[in-house]
């Protein structure tokens, strides 16, 4: 019975979608096959959370959903996320989204959640100040800022929208996963 169940599971996962993508069939609103609540772009699915968690909680929650905090590997991907977030942020200026980037092990050595290094060519820090490892006006946050978040209301012209922030802040998050297709 165990094997039968496994085969059944396998069959479910490997059965191609029965609806063609070009018919405009209302029964097939998600031709790209991302899970409910996820958005398709460039072969991947993205989840923009409505709720807020610390960076570590966000990292874990994305894994629970079968993905990971987003790893941004191209200008196109950054632009897509920048624009998407721009439409999802409230007027509250700190209403930004965690991404899967941290320098919590060695200061200023930014690593993605898969332990890959941040490429010199693909850095999208906001303005000229970030990352600033800000410790507070009076040094009240000695731990500085070791986690990256992104987003500007309406999106940015140059797609530079990353800021480092205190990892214990609660922010929304972007999870990413490979599209099931
Ligand atoms: Ca830092
Ligand atoms: Ca900062």
From TrEMBL:
InterPro entries named among the record's database cross-references: C-type_lectin-like (IPR001304), C-type_lectin-like/link_sf (IPR016186), C-type_lectin/snaclec_domain (IPR050111), CD209-like_CTLD (IPR033989), CTDL_fold (IPR016187)
Keywords (A to Z) from UniProt: Lectin
Keyword Ribosomal protein among UniProt keywords: no
Gene Ontology molecular function: carbohydrate binding
UniProt biased composition (Basic and acidic residues): 1-12
Disordered, as annotated region: 1-26
Keyword presence, Electron transport: no
Residue stretches making up the C-type lectin domain: 41-176
Entry protein name: Immune-related, lectin-like receptor 4
